[in-house]
């Protein structure tokens, strides 16, 4: 029996005006799997993530999640079905505390469920607990990335989208972020990562896709695409 993909995009095409940012892309993510989308700046990585989340309009193609067609579903509907995103540049609520940021990530949940989820995050991410009263805007870039990931995890999603999670981070912060992603994987959450810094992302993924100018150039197991993904032609 063929396994049903958790997420599947077929012929995904996104346009901005007359510019085709993503062209006829086929990708999928299975339950509990971590997949990476690699490409240079402008390759279409963030567009793919935003299309999956429902933040940009799909011009052509289809998106299915847990067997349901979500191509025209709203971002709120997708979030309720179990898709959450940690956006490029982190975009934490700078004037809110770490705890308030995490609570904001569970806006669709009942208050007791949300409190339980935040308590779980504090238990599993000691840094978040230690800075729970700090304003998110006072944290370093790497610390804000942990807050952004935690906020996306509050609702216990089936699929976590991480858009450029290593962008602008120091080597130490990259290692810390990687550890956080590993913990997410251990919970059985499927993860889709878009990343220009391929090396740390490839260490976390089972499969990957390499893009150039919105088109798929290579896909497969990480061991198969690693050299191609790291080549200077793409990064």
What does the model show?
By secondary structure, the chain is α/β, with parallel strands linked by helices. The chain has one domain: 3-Layer(aba) Sandwich (Rossmann fold), CATH 3.40.50.300. It has nine helices and ten strands. The strands form two sheets. A six-stranded mixed sheet has the order 6-7-8-3-9-10, with helices on both faces. The protein has a four-stranded antiparallel sheet with strand order 2-1-4-5, covered by helices on one side. The chain is globular and about 45 Å long.
CATH architecture: 3-Layer(aba) Sandwich
Instruction: Profile the largest sheet.
Output: 6 strands, mixed
How many DSSP H or I helices?
9
- Low-confidence blocks of residues: none
**N→C terminal distance:** 39 Å
Helix % is 25-40%
- The rough form would be described as globular
Work out the strand percent.
Answer: 25-35%
- Based on CA atoms alone, the radius of gyration comes out at 17 Å
Tell me the domain tally.
1
- Stated plainly, the CATH topology is called Rossmann fold
**What is the class in the CATH system?**
Alpha Beta
Rounded average pLDDT: 90
CATH H level: which superfamily?
P-loop containing nucleotide triphosphate hydrolases
SS-based class: alpha/beta
Total beta strands: 10
Give the spatial strand order of the biggest sheet: 6-7-8-3-9-10
State the order of secondary-structure elements, H for helix, E for strand. EEEHEEHEHHHHEHEHEEH
């Amino acid at each position: 029996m063929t396994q049903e993909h958790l997420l599947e995009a077929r012929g995904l095409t996104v346009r901005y005006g007359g510019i085709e940012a993503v062209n006829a892309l086929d990708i999928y993510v299975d339950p509990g799997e971590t997949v990476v989308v690699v490409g240079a700046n402008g390759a279409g990585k963030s567009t793919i993530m935003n299309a999956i989340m429902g933040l940009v309009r799909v011009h052509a193609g289809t998106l299915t999640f847990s067997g349901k067609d979500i191509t025209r579903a709203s971002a709120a509907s997708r979030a309720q079905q179990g898709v959450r995103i940690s956006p490029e540049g982190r975009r934490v609520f700078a004037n809110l505390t770490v705890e308030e940021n995490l609570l904001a990530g569970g806006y669709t949940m009942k208050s007791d469920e949300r409190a339980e989820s935040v308590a779980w995050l504090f238990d599993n991410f000691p840094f978040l607990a230690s800075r729970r009263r700090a304003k998110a805007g006072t944290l370093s870039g790497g610390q804000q990335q942990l807050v952004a990931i935690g906020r996306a995890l509050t609702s216990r999603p089936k699929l976590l989208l991480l858009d450029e999670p290593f962008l602008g981070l120091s080597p130490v912060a990259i290692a810390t972020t990687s550890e956080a992603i590993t913990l997410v994987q251990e919970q059985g959450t499927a993860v889709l990562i878009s990343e220009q810094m391929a090396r740390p992302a490839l260490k976390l993924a089972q499969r990957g896709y390499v893009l150039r100018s919105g088109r798929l150039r290579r896909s497969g197991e990480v061991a198969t695409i690693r050299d191609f993904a790291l080549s200077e032609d793409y990064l």
